[in-house]
Amino acid sequence: MKNLFIFCLLLIILTGCENDDLKLNRYACTLNPNETYAVIDITKGDGGYKADTDNQDVAVCRIEDNKIIVLGIKAGDATITVVDKNNNSAEIKVNVSTTIPRVPAYIMGVEIKKGETIGIEFADEIDTERKTYISEVVDEDVAITTLFDKFLFIRAIDVGMTEIYVSEDYWIISAYSVTVIE
Predict the structure, then answer these.
(1) 134-169 residue pLDDT tens
(2) Which residues in 95-112 are b (16+ Cβ under 10 Å) and which e?
């Protein structure tokens, strides 16, 4: 009887310590030049998610809605920790089997006057139903962007220089070196 009591007490303690408030659809991924990123769904949690990697040389991550986007960079291992607003956490083990080149084919130089907006066709055709397209601006004090169809619109905010990247499924397909002049 005493052993049954100890067993039940241990079971209660161990069950009480289990964190089941943050769940993911998977807890590991392997990336390589053919599979350069992973999308991991947050299936249960309390919102306000943050994610961080312990090795940014190997893999980086970001949160988009209830998804963690993991991008492979260099061969090695990393652990991504996901935390919700109530400090519930989960870990994702990432293995990048081979270094993944992330360099666009070329970088286009763009000069634009402060206050103007220009449109640039960044692709011949796009597939928005099956792929995700995003634009990233290094310095949003200099310029901001909007994507519409296969066009990148750049609005010049202030004099200076910045870089802009357009990604298809989190892979850079176009890069721009933008100079804003008076």
Answers:
(1) 888 989 999 999 999 889 999 999 999 999 988 887
(2) bbeeebeeeeeeeeebeb
Q: Which class is 107-181 in CATH?
A: mainly beta
Predicted model pTM: 0.56
pLDDT single digits (tens) 21-69: 899 999 999 999 888 889 999 999 998 999 999 998 899 888 888 999 9
The CATH code of the domain at 20-96 is 2.60.40.1080
Instruction: List the chain domain ranges.
Output: 20-96, 107-181
